[in-house]
């Protein structure tokens, strides 16, 4: 897949497709590879490219810490080439059943062979368990001031229910001047739960919540 110029709408759409099943540009943690692509964007992705927007907001949340991320910046073509090689290898592994056979004459015997191969291929695919893509997310919910009732804030956050959303552990993290932020973990099914929508739902409790940041986002 060629991503192209990230300063164009088509380039961002291609990046969105690239990140559809990835948390990061390369590997399983944020790195300079993400920083390089992040800096190549002329503006934040829009809601029309949700995967790119989710990734952008996550990398943005690192702030000045982005400079300390491991790895090195690379040309985007390097990731595309690696992705293409991996996809090719996966296809080779999965293509051990020839659906169409040879170019022999299309007689009754050839049709029978093709039918048997198609049946074998369908049986092989049916035995593969369906994987449910999930993500583990750590959210940081910030209050307005030190007078905000943090227990009530957490209660409001946990009251949000969505199909495919499971709330996990939480803790209060000091940010200074007697103010704490709520750090809470959740696990979501990617096909069912939009992270952007979840953040919006939390921000609706505007009497308690000043802002919501994504501290960590990892595929499970």
Automatic annotation (TrEMBL):
A Pfam family recorded for this sequence: EF-1_beta_acid
Matching PROSITE patterns: EF1BD_1, EF1BD_2
Domain Translation elongation factor EF1B beta/delta subunit guanine nucleotide exchange: residue ranges: 134-220
Keyword hit for Protein biosynthesis: yes
Entry keywords, A to Z: Elongation factor, Protein biosynthesis
Entry GO terms, CC: cytosol; eukaryotic translation elongation factor 1 complex
Record SUPFAM superfamilies: eEF-1beta-like (SSF54984), GST C-terminal domain-like (SSF47616)
GO molecular function: guanyl-nucleotide exchange factor activity; translation elongation factor activity
Entry keyword annotation includes Protein biosynthesis: yes
Elongation factor 1 beta central acidic region eukaryote domain segment(s): 99-125
CDD domains: EF1B (cd00292), GST_C_eEF1b_like (cd10308)
Family: Belongs to the EF-1-beta/EF-1-delta family.
Function field: Catalytic subunit of the guanine nucleotide exchange factor (GEF) (eEF1B subcomplex) of the eukaryotic elongation factor 1 complex (eEF1). Stimulates the exchange of GDP for GTP on elongation factor 1A (eEF1A), probably by displacing GDP from the nucleotide binding pocket in eEF1A.
Oligomeric form and interacting partners: EF-1 is composed of 4 subunits: alpha, beta (alpha subunit of the eEF1B subcomplex), delta (beta subunit of the eEF1B subcomplex), and gamma (gamma subunit of the eEF1B subcomplex). Interacts with elongation factor EEF1A1.
The protein's name: Elongation factor 1-beta
Organism: Diploptera punctata
């Amino acid at each position: 897949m060629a991503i192209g110029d990230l300063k164009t709408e088509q380039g961002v759409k291609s990046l969105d497709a690239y990140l559809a099943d990835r948390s990061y540009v390369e590997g399983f943690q944020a790195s300079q590879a993400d920083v390089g692509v992040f800096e190549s964007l002329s503006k934040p992705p829009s809601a029309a490219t949700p995967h790119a927007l989710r990734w952008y907001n996550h990398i943005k949340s690192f702030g000045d810490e982005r400079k300390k991320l491991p790895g090195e910046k690379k040309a985007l073509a390097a990731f595309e080439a690696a992705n293409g090689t991996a996809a090719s290898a996966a296809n080779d592994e999965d293509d051990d059943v020839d659906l169409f056979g040879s170019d022999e004459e299309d007689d009754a015997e050839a049709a029978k062979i093709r039918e048997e191969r198609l049946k074998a291929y369908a049986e092989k695919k049916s035995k593969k368990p369906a994987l449910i893509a999930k993500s583990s997310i750590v959210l940081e919910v910030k209050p307005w001031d030190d007078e905000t009732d943090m227990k009530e804030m957490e209660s409001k956050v946990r009251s949000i229910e969505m199909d495919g959303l499971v709330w996990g552990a939480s803790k209060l993290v000091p940010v200074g001047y007697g103010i704490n932020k709520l750090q809470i973990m959740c696990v979501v099914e990617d096909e069912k739960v939009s992270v952007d929508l979840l953040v919006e739902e939390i921000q609706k409790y505007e009497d308690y919540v000043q802002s919501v940041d994504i501290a960590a986002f990892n595929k499970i």
